[in-house]
Amino acid sequence: MNLNITLGVASAATQIEGGGFTHTWSDWYQKGRIHDGSNPARANDHLNRWKEDIDLMSEMGISIYRLSIEWARIEPQKGRYNEDAVRWYRRLLEYMKNKGIAPLLTLHHFTNPLWFEESGGFAEPANIPVFLGFVEYAVRQLGDLADEYVTLNEPNVFAVMGYNTGEFPPGKHSMLTAMKVQSVMAACHIKAYALIHSLRSEMGYANTKVGFAHHARVFAPKNKWNLWHCLCAHLTSLMFQDVLTRACLLGRFLFPLKKYFNARPGEYADFLGLNYYTRSTVSSFADGTRKDGPHNDLGWEIYPQGITSCAGELYKLLKRPVYITENGTCDNSDSFRCRYIYDHLKALADSGLPVERYYHWCFTDNFEWCEGESARFGLVHVDYSTQKRTVKKSGNFFTAIIKSKCVTKEIYDEYVAPQDYS
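Above: the chain's sequence. Below: its structure in token form.
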């Protein structure tokens, strides 16, 4: 398999940095809502081990890295900024540059400062300027070291999990509020898109790229001949991802989203960021999983062809390069991750779509939100008690692909052939 796609890795600040910052996920831990009791204050201790982690990326041949900054760390109180935190991120980005690793900088990845959450968070349209104030500060401080930005990570997941199912903070149960949050976050993206371009232009840079990381999945009817199943699949997809896609990419706010400012129809992405993991099998207005076929250790269906159909749907809306901003799987024993990566990369390589980058989720095992430390997605194993990093077989496979720019028969036979999803 020849591969004309640059391979990299992804992470999020809350999931790796550690440190006792006051934000929504530290509060969620205090409320006993992390399944295995893990504390994000530990995570991967990346706060102290960042050089070790970047060195390891470099040794593995990784040249692109999607990372996020911790809003609660940079702005611990509204309007009061932590200059030490900014200096830390500058050192990190400068070290990455020296190692030949280009950043894709995410400005919001699921976590709010507690002061922002207590003011209504993204459920309050009046907070749009508050978020934009953070964006402006971050870009002014770091904009000379990062050319490419993700404004928001998975606003649909953030909204649905936090405001409808209640599994994420703040633990609400209202579909109407979840749709309001999506509307507000779409407005934040559009305004941040313009702001980042303006700020970087003011700073003298013309190579700016801005997008958002959209979580999309295939919604398939459980029985394709059952009209109710088909209707539920269509409407679930519409509410979970389709209307948000049009709002963020094109400035078109369709029902049930609401336009909270005078957004003009336009084009609000320089790349199509796609986070893809699974397919949902639908028989009602609830998520479902096909019983037959392969599943990962969290019970998610493994459906590689879905990555191309989701990317294709985005490309139909807006002709931009495709970045797979996240793709990976929970495989605690690393027994099928090589095959998972291969199958998804092959689907992308055969698709004919302009896929330029693939960021594997994630680099090291990390604090996996509600699952805590129990769900391992990394190419690198972390012993949380000692913080020792050990490259997994899948990590060696990833490096072999990067070095060869293809999957040779020898690479396939060594890493992929011995593995099966069963």
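Residues 26 and 40 are 6 Å apart (CA to CA).
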